[in-house]
């Protein structure tokens, strides 16, 4: 019985040794940290040594070098040129850990550079500027400024009397500006010429309408009733419109406004 148990034990021991040797020689790098890789190989070595299978430092060094990923190919070349007295397991372990730290730092730098490059093309949906996301925007939504946080904004609890919203004041209200543009759609900015001649025009090539106070120079006259606002909010009545024939051009749809001091366009 004893002999049978010894035979079974010895067979089990040989099977374990064979299995561990396969694990040792087939061991591969699987994206673990370098310290974990070296530890796993050292554990296999210790278990094999306990089964009287000697695994020396040279075999461990060879196994570690064959497990390294492609990014360590320059490291392997540098290690092969290392003097023999420096090719120790301790030295290899320290150099691999240092090399791993350098790879980590480079990856971090590349990520930062890539992120900055991507930032050039992104647009914030809060301030509509290029270069950052809405979650990173520093603009206060209430006053549109960047020198404080929204919770500290003085306009946070105020309310626009025009549109009833609390993210702006009345003077910056879109609807106020929209109403003002309608109100002053027919505003006339007037200047007066002190010289009095029979026919004189103050010419403005950017004007949208021509005006005169002399109906006798208008041809194709048509009566109309329209109001023109002056810059000082005074109203002037346009009683008709017609065409003024000049020497080099004709002024179409010239308004007849009796209150004008001279001729304008």
TrEMBL record:
From the UniProt record, which GO molecular function terms apply?
A: nucleic acid binding; zinc ion binding
- The CCHC-type domain covers which part of the protein? 123-138
Key words, A-Z = Metal-binding, Zinc, Zinc-finger
Q: Which Pfam families match?
A: Pol_BBD, Retrotran_gag_2
The record's section on SUPFAM superfamilies has: Retrovirus zinc finger-like domains
Question: Any idea what this protein is called?
Answer: CCHC-type domain-containing protein
Q: Which organism is it from?
A: Papilio machaon (Old World swallowtail butterfly)
